[in-house]
Amino acid sequence: MPDETGTRITRGYTGYPETHAAMGSLYQRDFGQHPLPYSPGYKTTVARSPSLPLLSMPSTITEETGPVFGHEMLADLDNDLTCNFTGRPAIGERIIVHGRVTDQERRPQRGVLIEVWQANAGGRYRHRKDGYLAPLDPDFGGCGRCITDDEGRYEFHTIKPGAYPWPNGTNDWRPAHIHFSIFGTGFGQRLITQMYFEGDPLIPRCPIIATIPDPKVAERLVAPLDMAMAMPMDSLAYRFDIVLRGRRQTTFENRMEGL
Amino acid sequence: MVQKLETFHETPSQTAGPYVHIGCTPNFIGVEGIYSADLGAADPFPDAGDTITLVGRVIDGTGTPLRDCMVEFWQADGGGRYRPGQGFARRPADAETGEWRLVTVKPGRVPFSDKVMQAPHIAVWIAARGINLGLHTRIYFEDEDNDGDPLLGRIELRHRVPTLVARRDGGVYRHDIVLKGEGETVFLDI
Ligand SMILES: [Fe+2]
């Protein structure tokens, strides 16, 4: 896959597959833009967060390459959660969730696989470990996927998920959210996150969102209502843009000895 | 005054939560009929003759295996080439034991620079409830020559190097990943 500018990158070494030959090394991750691994307000993180520092190192061919997924793997209804489970319509407020995937230089990321999962309109997941008393919807499975087009755009049709309580504090509730899993072109860009909905009063009360120390950063996970994309008499729309780690674009990229 | 540096921030991560299977391996938990097969459920090199088996668990800071995590693998083929249509796998931990199992080829050496090669390794990425930002690590092999590997060479506390090296155990390679505490695995900012 050539990059946006068409620049060929002269790497200091060979061995990249054709799809990745023109791609540079990844920008170092800015951990100030992410949640803290150890966040006692979200109790499960306490035993599951490393206590020692990460080993920092520039990306290598291993992280700069990654699996490539083609549109042929998708079925017609993969991105339509309103009816991809039984073919009958799921119960709930019909919405469109759409946006663009770019890198940190705003270069569109085409061919990106996005997988989503969510609770039903009552806040219940189709999972044996979810015992919430809200009922399952027999016509809602709860997952969907799509691959971005040449401009990095994606679109899902779904129903708005409900808020739900979870065992953390005695009365913690998750704001309505959709889980997103995103594959960039490099394995080092791999990202899982959650999208929230504009105006939800549970957002400032959520211990999981609060694992991101800076509320300004967390705001970037809140999708605004997008009336321009809403379909009259059919669906409201929310827009959620996604930014993946950038790549250096340079004609010279040689690794110094000893690095 | 200077020009404004117009680099954007990466989208913040959030935990995959306890129901990651619904989105990533729905067939594994019985949400069937949406995808014909779970992504990455097949062996990474399905046509390979000469395979190895890797078995492991992800263990938390109390010594308990995670039974709700998802582990992803990305690796070169036996000749040390990354192939876009192959080399990826995704394994949910077993709901009872927390174990995952990967049947694959042993990767070849891949370049680091024009002079330096990396020892054979598999990239690993872990997502789960309680993990706010997916964890990158690697699996090397104890019966390979790992001297001179640029990543292993960077590990300052040398006694931590074995946390990235799978050991032979009968016919399989065994590799537990420890999230925290004694024997904590080296995780990567890479
Ligand atoms: Fe959730």
Please name the defining characteristics of this protein.
heterodimer, A: 259 residues, mainly beta, Protocatechuate 3,4-Dioxygenase, subunit A, five-stranded mixed sheet, four-stranded mixed sheet, 3 helices, 14 strands, B: 190 residues, nine-stranded mixed sheet, two-stranded antiparallel ribbon, 12 strands, globular, binds fe (ii) ion
Give a structural overview.
The complex is a heterodimer of chains A (259) and B (190). Chain A has 259 residues and is mainly β. Chain A is 5% helix and 24% strand. Chain A has one domain: Protocatechuate 3,4-Dioxygenase, subunit A, CATH 2.60.130.10. Chain A has 3 helices and 14 strands. In chain A, the strands form 4 sheets. Chain A has a 5-stranded mixed beta sheet with strand order 5-4-9-10-11, with no helix packed on it. Chain A is globular, with a radius of gyration of 20 Å. Chain B is an all-beta fold. Chain B has a single domain, classed as Protocatechuate 3,4-Dioxygenase, subunit A. In chain B, strands 1, 2, 3, 4, 7, 8, 9, 10 and 11 form a 9-stranded mixed beta sheet that branches. A two-stranded antiparallel sheet of chain B has the order 5-6. The longest helix of chain B has 5 residues. Chain B starts with 19 loop residues before the first helix and ends with a strand. Classes of the chains: A mainly beta (259), B mainly beta (190). Chains A and B meet through α1, β2, α2, β4 and β5 of A and α1, β5, β7, β8 and β12 of B. β2 of chain A pairs parallel with β12 of chain B. Bound molecules: fe (ii) ion. The site of fe (ii) ion has 3 residues of chain A, from β9.
Query: The CATH topology of chain B, please?
Result: Protocatechuate 3,4-Dioxygenase, subunit A
Quick check: average pLDDT of chain B? Answer: 96
- Strand fraction of chain B equals 25-35%
Top-tier CATH class of chain B: Mainly Beta
CATH superfamily of chain B: Aromatic compound dioxygenase
Percent of residues in beta strands of chain A: 15-25%
Strand order of the largest sheet of chain A: 5-4-9-10-11
Approximate helicity band of chain A: under 10%
Distance between the termini of chain A: 28 Å
- Series of H and E elements of chain B: HEEEEEEEEEEEE
CATH architecture of chain B: Sandwich
Number of continuous helical runs of chain B: 1
Largest sheet of chain B: 9 strands, mixed
Tell me which protein chains meet in the greatest interface and how many residues each side has: A-B, 94 and 83 residues
Structural class of chain B: mainly beta
- Rounded to an integer in angstroms, the radius of gyration calculated over CA atoms of chain B is 18 Å
Give the cofactors and ligands: fe (ii) ion
